[in-house]
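This part of the workshop introduces the protein records we will be handling. To make this concrete, we reproduce a full record directly below:
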Amino acid sequence: MRRSRQRGTLLALGLAGLSRTSARAMHRQLYEELRETVLSRRLRAGVRLPSTRALATELRVSRNTVITAFEQLLAEGYVEGKIGSGTYVASRLPDDILCVRARPAPAAAGPPDGRGISRRGSLMRLAQSSPSDGVLPPRAFRSGLPAIEEFPVELWARIVGRVWRQARREQLAYGEHAGYKPLREAIAEYLREARGVRCEAAQVIVVEGAQQGLDLVARVLLDPGDSIWMEDPGYYGARGAFQAAGARLVAVPVDGEGLVVGEGIRRMESARMAYVTPSHQYPLGHVMSLPRRLALLDWASRAGAWVIEDDYDSEFRFGGRPLAAIQGLDRQGLVIYVGSFSKVLVPALRLGYLVVPPDLVDTCVGARRLMSYHAPTMEQAALAEFLGEGHFARHIRRLRGIYAERQRVLVEEARKRLAGLLEVEPQEAGLSLVGWLPKGIDDEAAHRHAAAYGVITSPLSRGAIEPQARGGLILGYGVTPPREIREGTRKLEAALRSLVAGK
């Protein structure tokens, strides 16, 4: 009898019942259930609720649980108490806030109208910023990740602790929009010595990773419809940032000397901007030759264009010193230099930087302020000490040896196991290699087969604007120790043999 009476009361109230295994407290569950019945009009204005004692008995919970839920509803105006009479659904809830419905999803395509998203919002939604299929684990052969297990966590923790213990009052307030000054000074000094960049600290703007830097550049320097030269194949994150700004992407092929400047001129001489990764072209790994660098600057000078130099993976050169940056050759203020600590240290440290010509500083700092005011000050302070005390330089030197060994193992294993399936050749720098598939093998299909065997790859075609003559897989080795490289190669061999056998 009791069960049927309880079921009847719960149905009358519109309650689905409470879960004793839920992580939410019982009073919170009851409050949310009752609130939903009011908003959906299953309980209408003026309806009297059961007494707290009766409801507690039927729900088999303590009376305090019900009282707490009722008090919250009363405080928020969903119910009202009448002395000597009980608790009622509030009589003054306006009809237009009841029957709350989910907002319909926006149209999948086409220009926005009414309350739809903006044109820029549509472009941002469609722009691709990553080749991956979601957030993937750090295993063979994920690209874009450094050797995160080699990061000196304990040393970094000591520096962070010291920075916080010694924090001055002004460091805990809002910081400079361009970034923490000691960090900008340390970055400028490092770039002058290691990369041949001609800059002062005033030209350095700290951003939250290179991707934010590219987005800032796009906001400041591109109008919808402007043309930009893009390396093809190239870095999808940059492509996404410029697409989101409404730019027209001009695919410019890459050969062994880097971006083919003459072809860019033939396709769109009047482009507003060129984006290049000259020290280690992503994803092919080529280095832009000096004649091409000078030709690029000559074109930019004649066309009144900007050059965006993304110094991707420049630190990790295995033979000799890293090549000097194009920015160091620039005498006219044409080059904007982009760098990041995420790929060098750990991605969780969302800090990067721009080096901009002096006449762009105020504009870029103003745009930086609007984006997120400034990067976290205490992380910037810790990084400034990490650089200033020499830890960064030592870490880079150590990683070069680690990455050289990992690349050697990958090339050896590929030649032993993947002959005829994937052609992998060594490069002089970087954290990834391109494996070339036999002609006629689709790299998206190869990527899916590899994933089915537990191997992460990036199809070369996803970084391309125009169709490529041959498919390939980008194989990252930065985050993958030798043992995992060997195991990953065995899995990749099985995946590719399965694919070829099925054709």
Q: What stands out?
A: The CA atoms of residues 18 and 29 lie 6 Å apart. The first helix runs from residue 2 to 13. Residues 2-97 form a domain with the Arc Repressor Mutant, subunit A fold (CATH 1.10.10.10).
